[in-house]
Amino acid sequence: MLKVTKKERESPQNLVHRFAKVVRQSGVLLQARKNQFRKRPKSDLAKKRSALRRVELRKERVIAEKMAKPK
């Protein structure tokens, strides 16, 4: 947790500026942005389904190739 205390005779503007600097240097925002768009890994069932779909599409492509007119 980041903590910035006000120094004696420090203006609020300077305090905010110092706080922003501490946040920037800590890397908290970079980590939050990185996690914001993180993708979850596929489940085992989803992997199996996509593999089966690829096999079916490959079969269909081979059949369509065989049925195509010769050049």
Word description of this protein:
By secondary structure, the protein is mainly α. It has one domain. It contains 3 helices and no strands. The longest helix is centred in the last third of the chain and has 24 residues, at 44-67. The protein is rod-shaped.
Produce a short descriptive summary.
The chain is mainly alpha-helical and 71 residues long. It is 68% helix and 0% strand. It has one domain.
Lay out the secondary structure.
Blueprint: H1 12-26, H2 28-36, H3 44-67
The helix fraction, in percent, is 55-70%
- First-residue to last-residue Cα separation: 70 Å
Number of strand elements:
0
How does the overall form come out from the CA principal axes?
rod-shaped
Largest sheet: none
Q: Give start-end ranges of low-pLDDT stretches.
A: none
* Helix-strand sequence: HHH
Summed over residues and divided by their number, the pLDDT gives a mean of: 92
Number of domains: 1
Number of helices: 3
List the keywords.
mainly alpha, 3 helices
